[in-house]
Amino acid sequence: SSGINAEYGASNEIRFCEEELSCGLDSSGALTNTAVTLTPADHLPGATVQHSYGHMSVFLIRESADVRDLSSFTKNFIMEAQAIMRAHVASLGGNVLFEFRVSELVLLDSPQKLQAQILLILSGDAANVNYDNRQS
């Protein structure tokens, strides 16, 4: 299950990070569970970037001919898209996706026919970070 963690920055602004466990591979090739963070920020306080995997963009389309609740259809698709992004980051060896963006969401529906289509474009910068546990 995913959760939202709020962090308070220097000027009391709130930054939201979403985390969910995804499967990844460690340096020996063994399967591990890794918490992958999706954040719109360009850095995480207390984290040091160990490796950058570059920018990634994903284009997803979902279509259904049995849509009874459009909001649930949309919400479920967005959650699945976030899980796909987390899995992609974890498969590269990363544990964070910086500058996470939904750059386009197009929803077309035909309520009379119970049909709907969604186009979703997601992007961000994948990286592996280590968190500094020292107290300051």
Summed up:
With 136 residues, the chain is α+β, with helices and mostly antiparallel strands. The protein is 17% helix and 56% strand. It has one helix at 70-92; strands spanning 3-8, 14-25, 31-38, 47-64, 96-110, 115-131.
For the structure shown, list the relevant keywords.
17% helix, alpha+beta, 6-stranded mixed beta sheet, single chain, elongated, disordered N terminus, 136 residues, 1 helix
Please give a structural write-up.
- This protein has 136 residues and is an alpha+beta fold.
- 18% of the residues are buried.
- It has a six-stranded mixed β-sheet with strand order 1-2-3-5-6-4, covered by helices on one side.
- It contains one helix and six strands.
- The protein has one helix at residues 70-92, and strands at 3-8, 14-25, 31-38, 47-64, 96-110, 115-131.
- Mean pLDDT is 80; it is low at 1-24.
- It is elongated, with a radius of gyration of 17 Å.
- 17% of the residues lie in helices and 56% in strands.
